């Protein structure tokens, strides 16, 4: 998963739990890769706040992945996680 998530991706994720999991996992991987680049970049006064914000978002994505895995879809249900 790389690049920008499109409206079509979001619509598919609402309907397809496996794709939703893949989309969130891919987004988490991209975020972690970018945080690692930021951590290794030249010193910047904004970096601590950016790293904190990125870490908070990573925790939220990881929690979402856990909820998706813990709540498999019910047959006939069209509710998205």
Topology of helices and strands:
Layout: H1 7-15, H2 17-40, H3 47-70
Helix pairs in contact: 1-2, 2-3
Notable characteristics:
single chain; 81 residues; mainly alpha; 0% strand
How would you sum up this structure, described in words?
This protein is an all-alpha fold and 81 residues long. Helix content is 70%, strand content 0%. The protein is built from three helices and no strands. It has helices spanning 7-15, 17-40, 47-70. Helix 1 crosses helix 2 (17-40) and helix 2 (17-40) packs antiparallel against helix 3. The model has no long low-confidence stretch (mean pLDDT 87).
Q: What's the overall geometry? A: elongated
Task: Describe the main β-sheet briefly.
Answer: none
Sketch the topology as an H/E string, one letter per element.
Answer: HHH
Overall average residue pLDDT: 87
Low-confidence stretches: none
Which value, in Å, is the CA radius of gyration? 15 Å
> Helix tally?
3
Beginning-to-end CA distance, first to last residue? 19 Å
**Class from helix and strand fractions:** mainly alpha
How would you briefly describe this protein structure?
This protein has 81 residues and is mainly alpha-helical. 70% of the residues lie in helices and 0% in strands.
